[in-house]
Design brief:
The complex is a heterodimer of chains A (111) and B (118). Chain A is mainly beta and 111 residues long. Helices cover 0% and strands 54% of the residues of chain A. Chain A has no helices and eleven strands. In chain A, the strands form two sheets. In chain A, strands 2, 4, 5, 9, 10 and 11 form a six-stranded mixed β-sheet that branches. The termini of chain A are far apart. The mean pLDDT of chain B is 92. Chain B is globular and about 45 Å long. In chain B, strands 2, 4, 5, 6, 9, 10 and 11 form a seven-stranded mixed β-sheet that branches. Classes of the chains: A mainly beta (111), B mainly beta (118). The interface between A and B is medium-sized, with 21 and 24 residues.
């Protein structure tokens, strides 16, 4: 079945630093989604990508849909303490298939 | 963004009892909803896909008689954990697919339900 490799698994950064995480797929995706999950909460959608090469920003967050359609990255600029959480990438290769999730990147921000 | 609610947010029950969890899309219609299970420090594990007006599709290894899913309307899906046992204790999260935007569909998650079976 489809697999997503998400890296890094965890990150410890200083407040104010930029962060980058990525996901790669064993197959082509038509949709890439990035979510953030806080402890005890459901994932919250951050950015949705629908076209190869698409670059989309949401405040300090920027995500890109790789041109090969097998990868995506998420950047967070000037990190702040509330950026702490687990970030998941998710992809889908057709409208009727369930999302495939990465294993998450656990972000810790040191003030 | 779209809002998905779940009820209850947490439940404690005795072993052998059944627990029903509701998932509602509050401001959009969802022909498809999904049920996930998440263990501590793990990713989301898809349990089943819930389609409005038809039977749910269960992932391999998920007992359909154990986890009953009903999707009776475009805004409500329910998951019933029947004869719950301590190993069923977990964080259950639903999501709903918003197809109002055509091909650019996306999926929104509920806040989750923490189940503890004693």
């Amino acid at each position: 079945g489809q697999q997503l490799n998400q890296s890094p698994q965890s990150m410890f950064i200083q407040e104010g630093e930029d962060v980058s995480m990525n996901c790669t797929s064993s197959s082509i995706f038509n949709t890439w989604l990035w979510y953030k999950q806080d402890p005890g909460e459901g994932p919250v959608l951050l950015i949705a990508l629908y076209k190869a090469g698409e670059l989309t920003s949401n405040g300090r967050l920027t995500a890109q849909f790789g041109i090969t359609r097998k990868d995506s990255f998420l950047n967070i600029s000037a990190s702040i303490p509330s950026d702490v959480g687990i970030y998941f990438c998710a992809g889908r290769n057709s409208g009727n298939t369930p999302l495939v999730f990465g294993k998450g990147t656990r972000l810790s921000v040191i003030a | 963004g779209a809002v998905v609610s779940q009820h209850p947010s947490r439940v404690i029950c005795k072993s052998g009892t059944s627990v029903k969890i509701e998932c509602r899309s509050l401001d959009f219609q969802a022909t498809t909803m999904f049920w996930y299970r998440q263990f501590p420090k793990q990713s989301l594990m898809l349990m089943a896909t819930s389609n409005e007006g038809s039977k749910a599709t269960y992932e391999q290894g998920v007992e359909k008689d154990k986890f009953l899913i009903n999707h009776a309307s475009l805004t409500l899906s329910t998951l019933t954990v029947t004869s719950a046992h301590p190993e069923d204790s977990s964080f259950y999260i639903c999501s709903a697919r918003d197809r109002a935007t055509g091909d650019q569909e996306t999926q929104y998650f509920g806040p989750g339900t923490r189940l503890l079976v004693l």
